[in-house]
Specification:
By secondary structure, the protein is of the alpha+beta class. The chain has 5 domains: 87 residues, no CATH class; 231 residues, HIV Type 1 Reverse Transcriptase, Chain A, domain 1 (Roll), CATH 3.10.10; 68 residues, no CATH class; 120 residues, Ribonuclease H-like superfamily/Ribonuclease H (Nucleotidyltransferase, domain 5); 100 residues, no CATH class. 41% of the residues lie in helices and 15% in strands. The protein has 24 helices and 22 strands. A 5-stranded mixed sheet has the order 2-8-7-3-4. Strands 17-16-15-18-19 form a 5-stranded mixed sheet. A hairpin with a 6-residue loop joins strand 16 and strand 17. It is globular, with a radius of gyration of 34 Å. 29% of the residues are buried.
């Protein structure tokens, strides 16, 4: 055996093997080089062209190793082509980054850190206030100012005075202003103007927004793209001298009036849209489109894109419109615009509009099925084929299903089929901003104890409107403790943020089943949170209308969308706390349970069955099961551990016949896997 081993590992044998391996490597390299020569390119030239020697070296190494060790790999030509594509992509990204920097340097005045002084703004375009009642005088008292914000007030006033955006006023009009602190305590608070009374007396500007379908159709022709976002767009336009007194606001240090468009006035978005359209009128539809304060540019070649971007920036410079350095991308291969992903490969719709339906969890109770079908019935008129699937699910909405909920594969198939139909093109529609005609936009909102929901729809009436998008979002942290009217208001705010592109610049109706919100725009006393929301909502042209809860089923269904089966509901948290509190009192009254943390009890199957059946008569356990457990998991219970409620290592047991084992335990330590 020793002789055999020594012969197997003899150095000369190793040398011969190494020599054979070197010859194979040389043949492989020669083969690779011939292939590269046929393609009229060499690895060295690729290195020099892209300046990515390390990338080429790594790819070349991987290429040789793969060819030796995996004979089933693709042909050499395919691998070389993949390497070539990656190299070209890296080189192109470097070129685009270099072009972006050069273009920003060339038009550095279009990307300021802050808006220039008012004297540098154009004097041929103004924002006007058209009033329903020109004789109405709005004079409201100043809100109380916390002393800790007085220095912040002084700083903000000095900044705006230095930029010429405000000036001392003697106007008879006065709207209150206040500060809202930001998350970062070092940053100055945000100045908010409460123009609700002024907005109510303002005639809305109905300047039309461009068609999203037309924008996407044009953008789909491009290979290179740019996206430009404006910075502090409202502060870039002067207020007409005759209307400046209407903007007067009260502060802790006197009355001031705005000389530029202030935040919170009703028609400011329409004014800015019109100004952008006028500045780029000659190029809209050919190389660019404008939507509110966003500009998108597309081109077929890099040279063409360089010229198009320079043309648009030159127009912005001429009209003294300024861009955001952080939110602008001038040379891109793909962009996200108006809820769509646009690239040379085409346009992909944003699945977020329907993802709240697609990820709807499997119902765990009859109540969950009713909520889901409540949403489905809202759109059943558009999908006649829906009935055959909902018929299967209707059997789980009866009173019998409340007691004995059994989910079968047939129910699951019907559930998935319904979700597919609801999110299909035959059901959903889009808002045609250019040709609305008799159609209107509706936003239905609702809130539950743990979730907010909303549905965006478009049509002539609420009854005939078709859905555009769905939204559902859980409440978290402090939001769970909001009063009911603030939860309902939060549902509206979330919907407006989510669908800003669809809603900004057009009138729409918000439906809520909380009647007090109809008067929100006239509410005198606002909390800081409500004031922040009011300032955000002031840029929209909306009307809040009360709707009975029974008629608001789509939004109600979204707000009561079931949580995933592994989620702990707020109600369950309270039950867990109840259990731990009860435990501390029971331990003190039952000395025999003092060793509960170390005692392990082995129980037979009959005892476990008695414990599980005892949950039905225990109010605490039955409430926890209703709020937490998945019926599929309940149906799958087959072993001892999966059927017992467990809090860490602590298990609560409750027996049907407590007299037999009451002295044994109400609480037992039973080392089982937890169910959450």
């Amino acid at each position: 055996m020793d002789a055999i081993c020594s012969a197997r590992y003899h150095p000369k044998v190793h040398d011969k093997r190494n020599e054979r391996q070197r010859r194979r490597d040389q043949r492989q390299e020669e083969h690779d080089r011939k292939i590269l020569e046929q393609e009229n390119i060499t690895l060295e030239s690729m290195m020099r062209e892209t300046q990515h020697k390390d990338v080429i070296r790594e790819l070349n190494l991987r290429f040789r190793v793969d060819k030796r060790d995996t004979p089933s790999d693709p042909p050499s030509e395919t691998v070389i082509a993949a390497i070539q594509r990656r190299i070209d992509e890296i080189a192109l990204l470097e070129i685009l980054d270099r072009e972006n920097k050069q273009m920003r340097t060339r038009f550095v005045d279009c990307f300021p850190d802050d808006i220039p002084h008012i004297n540098e703004l154009p004097t041929d375009v103004y924002h006007r206030f058209r009033l329903k009642d020109p004789n109405a005088v709005i004079a409201r008292r100043q809100y109380e100012c916390p002393k800790k914000y007085r220095e912040a007030w002084k700083t903000l006033l000095q900044q705006h005075l230095a930029a010429g955006r405000i000036r001392p006023s003697s106007s008879p009009h006065a709207s209150p202003a206040f500060l809202i602190p930001k998350v970062d305590p070092v940053v100055l608070p945000r100045w908010v103007n409460d123009y609700r009374k002024l907005n109510a007396n303002t005639v809305p500007d109905v300047h039309p927004l461009p068609s999203i379908a037309e924008i996407l159709s044009d953008c789909g022709k491009g290979q290179f793209f740019a996206k430009i976002d404006m910075t502090n767009s409202f502060f870039q336009t002067r207020v007409h001298p005759d209307d400046i007194p209407l903007t007067a606001v009260t502060t802790p240090f006197g009355l001031y009036e705005w000389t530029v468009m202030p935040q919170g006035c009703r028609n400011a978005p329409a004014t800015h849209q019109q100004r952008m359209f006028n500045a780029l009128r000659d190029h809209i539809g050919s190389i660019c489109h404008v939507y509110l304060d966003d500009i998108v540019i597309w081109s077929q070649t890099l040279e063409e894109h360089r010229q198009n971007v320079a043309t648009i920036l030159e127009c912005l410079r001429k009209n003294k419109l300024y861009c955001s350095p952080k939110k602008t991308d001038l040379f891109c291969l793909s962009i996200n615009f108006l809820g769509h992903y646009i690239s040379a490969n085409g346009i992909e719709a944003d699945n977020k509009k329907v993802e709240k339906i697609l990820d709807w969890p499997v119902p765990r109770s009859a109540s969950d099925v009713r909520s889901f079908l409540g949403l489905v019935r809202y759109i059943s008129n558009f999908l006649p084929a829906l009935a055959q699937h909902t018929l299967v699910l209707n059997t789980l909405t009866t009173k019998e299903a409340d007691k004995d909920f059994i989910w079968t594969p047939a129910h699951f198939d019907a559930f998935e089929a319904v979700k597919t139909l609801v999110t299909s093109r035959e059901c959903l529609t889009v808002i045609d901003h250019m040709n609305m005609g008799a159609n209107r936009v509706f936003v239905s909102c609702d809130a539950s104890d743990r979730c907010t929901g909303a549905v965006l729809s478009y049509g002539e009436t609420p009854e005939t409107a078709r859905p555009v998008a769905f939204e559902s979002q859980q409440l978290s942290g402090a939001e769970l403790n909001y009063p009911v009217h603030e939860k309902e208001l939060l549902a509206i705010v979330r919907a407006l943020r989510k669908w800003r592109v669809d809603l900004l610049g057009i009138p729409f109706t918000v439906f809520s089943d909380h009647r007090t919100l109809e008067n929100f725009t006239e509410q005198k006393h606002l909390s800081r949170r409500q004031a922040r929301w009011q300032e955000f909502m002031s840029q929209y042209d909306y009307t809040i209308t009360y709707i009975a809860g029974a008629d608001n089923s789509p939004a109600d269904a979204m707000s009561r969308k079931p949580l995933p089966s592994n989620a702990v509901l707020p109600s369950a948290i309270g039950l867990i706390w109840e259990a731990t509190t009860a435990l501390s009192t029971r331990v003190s009254s039952i000395p025999a349970v003092a060793a509960v943390s170390t005692l392990q009890i082995r129980c037979d199957a009959n005892w476990i069955t008695a414990v599980k059946s005892g949950y039905a008569v225990d109010s605490w356990c039955s409430r926890l099961l209703d709020s937490l457990w998945d019926p599929i998991a309940q149906a799958a219970v087959g072993d001892e551990s999966s059927g017992v409620l467990s809090l860490g290592a602590l298990t609560r047991g409750w027996l049907d016949n407590r007299t037999e084992t009451e002295s044994l335990c109400d609480w037992v330590c039973y080392m089982l896997a937890t169910v959450w």
